[in-house]
Specification:
Strand order of the largest sheet: 1-2
Number of helices: 6
Oligomer: single chain
Number of strands: 2
Length: 138
């Protein structure tokens, strides 16, 4: 009975609510993955707030919202007040993952600009990053 209620509750969630729930696990993973690294954009090592910042903005490029090469630890100043500090983000990204992967990411972002994930895909992504988080914290 409890499982049935949980499944019914899941079915009633809006698409945006589901995506936002997945973002929480995904971005928590990114911040933990990059915990010892500085801000991707400005190189800051201290910040009152750390974000999982998208190189290709999530609002515009839905196909790469959950792509690990697209999201990196960023200080709150760069991500929230400087719009991601995009030019410096790209410089930092090239230094971190290389020019070829950045170009591949940019190409993929353009190809998948509008992407709607299925409920199953969102559940799989959410589960994957919850498991990856457990691996980082153990």
């Amino acid at each position: 009975l409890r499982t049935e209620k949980r499944e019914e509750k899941e079915k009633l969630k809006t698409y945006s609510k589901q995506v936002n729930e997945v973002k929480v696990s995904f971005q928590r993973y990114i911040r933990m993955r990059d915990a010892k690294l500085p801000c991707i954009s400005c190189g800051a090592t201290t910040s009152s707030v750390w974000d999982g910042s998208h190189y290709k903005k999530a609002e515009v490029y839905s196909g790469v919202i959950f792509h690990e090469d697209n999201v990196h630890k960023s200080c709150g100043k760069c991500n929230r007040y400087l719009g991601g500090n995009e030019l410096n983000y790209r410089v930092g990204l090239i230094a971190k993952i290389g020019n070829e992967r950045v170009l591949q990411l940019e190409h993929l972002a353009d190809e998948t600009r509008v992407r709607k994930y299925s409920d199953l895909e969102l559940l799989e992504i959410k589960t994957r990053y919850k498991n990856k988080l457990k691996g980082l914290t153990q």
